Amino acid sequence: MFGTEKDFELIDALFFVAEFLIGFVAVSLNSLVVLAIVKHRSLHSITNGFICNLAAADITVGLFVTPFAAMSYVGYPGNFYGCLFVNCILLILTNVSIINLLVIALDRFFAVKSPLRYQKVMTMRKVYCINCGIWLLGINTGLIPIYGWSHPYRELTFCRFIDVIKMEHMVYLQFFGIILTSNIIMFAVYTYICLVVRKHSTQIDEMNLRFASQTDIKRATKWYRKEVKASKLIVLAVALFICITPINIFNCITLFCKTCTYSYALFLCTILLSHCNSCMNPILYATSNSSIKAAMKRLILYALNISPEGLQLVMSSSYTGVTPSRSRDVYRLSEKSFYSQERTKSSFKSSVIEVTTHSPELESSV
């Protein structure tokens, strides 16, 4: 029956607690990513502009999607149009995050396919325009139920997702049109990047063998590190598929099999899993970038008042004779050298997605 209330059980309380934790982690991690990119001018690059926009979208997911999902779960707001609007907000922010993931994948594809042309064409102004376009596209696709593709108006006293949003919309547009299509493209792009990295690894190893006097162990280590770095790219598409697909499978069951039943607890777990994608994005994208990872580490150490060298606590003035303000000055002076060391350590392991080569030979080999 449409708009009927349900009994509140222990599993519902656990669902609310899990939603709160997911929202808190998503906001915390993605805020750290945004702060690291905005604060450090050396991180103001094309790819990081897209990553910053993705983190901002995931912040809104943590701030609005999880509370709105919990609010709709308990039946608020108790009228048709309010219920429809709240659930459309969930679709908007989810679509923005997914479209952003797709844009990052395509950005890396063009950067690897034609690096010299990519450097000439892509500018920060275009990045801002593309980011605005991502939000406009996500808003328009998320508001489609309000435009008319929803259940007809009826009196409601208890808000439920399936009472206002048609399963045809969720399956045909959201799952097949946006989520599944985006995931297939991402998987193809990152597979291509892995193949390119493997090809370049082989070429570099051949050049080292021919022109450099390095041992076989060093060459094998270089090849292994590059292969591991490239293999992580496929994990990005797989993680999105794992997080988003289960809830959409239940939507397909609801649409195509009217008599089928499934576990209520399992259904709640798939909802939580779909929201977990916003927690995984900063880990899989941002922390895999050595520069952003170093900047995030510096921000955490500075917030905890910890010295970056040796991870030692900054001693108090009574013990060292250095005032707190002086200790902060010492920390700021050491930031530059620390960041330089971090970049030096990870320069060899930098991913192909960060490569900006000026070599015509490498471009032609791609």
TrEMBL record:
InterPro entries: Adenosn_rcpt (IPR001634), GPCR_Rhodpsn (IPR000276), GPCR_Rhodpsn_7TM (IPR017452). The keyword Protein biosynthesis does not apply. The chain crosses the membrane at residues 13-38, 50-73, 79-106, 127-150, 170-197, 233-256, 262-287. Keywords: Cell membrane, Disulfide bond, G-protein coupled receptor, Glycoprotein, Membrane, Receptor, Transducer, Transmembrane, Transmembrane helix. Pfam families: 7tm_1. Residues 29-285 form the G-protein coupled receptors family 1 profile domain. Gene3D superfamilies: Rhodopsin 7-helix transmembrane proteins. It is found in: Cell membrane. GO terms for cellular component: plasma membrane. It is a multi-pass membrane protein. GO terms for molecular function: G protein-coupled adenosine receptor activity. PANTHER family: ADENOSINE RECEPTOR, ISOFORM A, OLFACTORY RECEPTOR AND ADENOSINE RECEPTOR. This is Adenosine receptor A3-like. The gene is LOC106058931.
